[in-house]
Amino acid sequence: MLDESLNKASVIEAPHMIDVVFELDGTSVPESYPFALWSEVVRCLPWIKNEVNAGILPLRGSASGEQLLLSKRTKLVLRVPTELAVQTNQLSGQRLDVDGAILVVGKGRQRELQAATTLHAYLVESNLGEIEFLADMKQKLQAMNISCNLICDKYRQVRSVKQTLTGYGLVLHDLKLPASLTIQSIGLGGKRHLGCGMFVPFKAISGLD
Questions:
Q1: Which of 62, 101, 181, 185 to pair with 115, CA 20 to 30 A apart?
Q2: Which 3 state secondary structure label does DSSP give 47?
Q3: Is 166 within 8 Å of 127 (Cβ atoms)?
Q4: Which of 7-21, 75-89, 110-124 has the lowest average pLDDT?
Q5: Which domain holds residue 148?
């Protein structure tokens, strides 16, 4: 239970989002997978393209050349409005063709967002330099009445034949718990559907990768 002494009025009202975690059967995907994976999810769930805050969390795996190697523990995680979570069940059993890599989606389960004082996003979309990026993030957080400290992670680029994503990983720490849930629900920056600006709880400040 969140500490009732925290001032919930200090952050903006956020949509109630939830993660739907699907089992995933596959061995690897191209490093440029976010574009093709989103297209395949939209093919199966056409309504999701109209949900501004909905998206796919970055897949967890090991980089090898131009491939991301997947393990048995790799999951496909959709962050969607809570009232639409049941509709994502249509994804179970689907075969997704991610630029030639076949992923078979298994059963899904709902997972509530967890409030945490430290959050990490793998990639927040930006074309700015690191100093300007951090200043822009601070400004966006201030506009949301959220106070915290920031650590810039690695510069990252995701490139396909037709599209390119650029930005930085980002850690937010010393967050108040209501603000933590707000950031996870709304995110920062654009391209949420491609996994950008999507935050998850982070246990440690050091060893970012």
A1: 62
A2: helix
A3: yes
A4: 7-21
A5: 119-201
Among 55, 83, 112, where does a domain finish?
112
Alpha helix stretches (DSSP H) within 45-104: none
**pTM score, whole prediction:** 0.87
Cα 147 from Cα 138, distance rounded (Å): 9
Q: Looking at the structure, tell me whether residues 88 and 133 fall in a common domain.
A: no
95 and 165 fall within a common domain: no
Q: How many CA atoms lie within 13 A of 162 on its CB side?
A: 5
In tens, the pLDDT along 19-53 reads: 999 999 999 999 999 999 999 999 999 999 999 88
110 touches 18 (CB < 8 A): yes
- What is the average pLDDT across 48-74? 93
CA distance 75 to 60: 7
The residue out of 83, 112, 141 marking a domain boundary is: 112
d(CA 122, CA 108): 23
Whether 96 and 23 map to the same domain: the answer is: yes
